[in-house]
Amino acid sequence: YQRRVHGVSAIVGEFLFSMALGWVVLNVATTKANESHGFYGLAIGSTVGAGAYICKVSGGVFNFAVFLGLNIGGIGSKVGANKAWQYTWVYLVFCNLGGLAAGLLFRVTSSADAKPVQINDGSYARL
After folding, report:
1. What is d(CA 57, CA 35) in angstroms, rounded to the nearest whole number?
2. For the whole model, what pTM was predicted?
3. Whose CB among 6, 7, 60, 81 lies 3.0–4.6 Å from 76's, allowing a Cys bridge?
4. Positions in the chain short of pLDDT 70
């Protein structure tokens, strides 16, 4: 079995599942409505599992740090990603864009859960 990055499919997959994973984490771990629920692991694990199954075209990384860790440690080459370094830009750009999109989507859909944060000058901002 050898993983290969397949252009647009990899880009779309990494972006969408990075966004989905970020959005799920933000919704289950930070919203007030889910404070007393214990389904965090199931929700996050299911998202990662679905993404890994569907994103066979890109390896299903969803996090640039995972990509770096696997390939710096040499594990990436053992699972068939021996040419993974040439696709670094896919993981760097689209995993981060997916995370940014998740944060913006969460901000729009869950603005009531935004917490006020004091800035150094004494003013407050909602994050």
Report:
1. 36
2. 0.75
3. 81
4. 1-6, 57, 75-84, 114-119, 122-127
Q: Tell me the angle at which helices 7-30 and 88-109 cross, rounded to the nearest 10 degrees.
A: 40
Is residue 43 within 8 Å of 51, Cβ to Cβ? no
Count the residues in the chain.
127
DSSP letter for each residue of 65-85: HHHHHHHHTTHHHHTT-TTGG
Specify the pairing of strand 116-118 against strand 124-126: antiparallel
Residue type, 13: G
Question: Structure tokens of 12?
Answer: 């779309």
End-to-end alpha carbon distance in the chain: 43
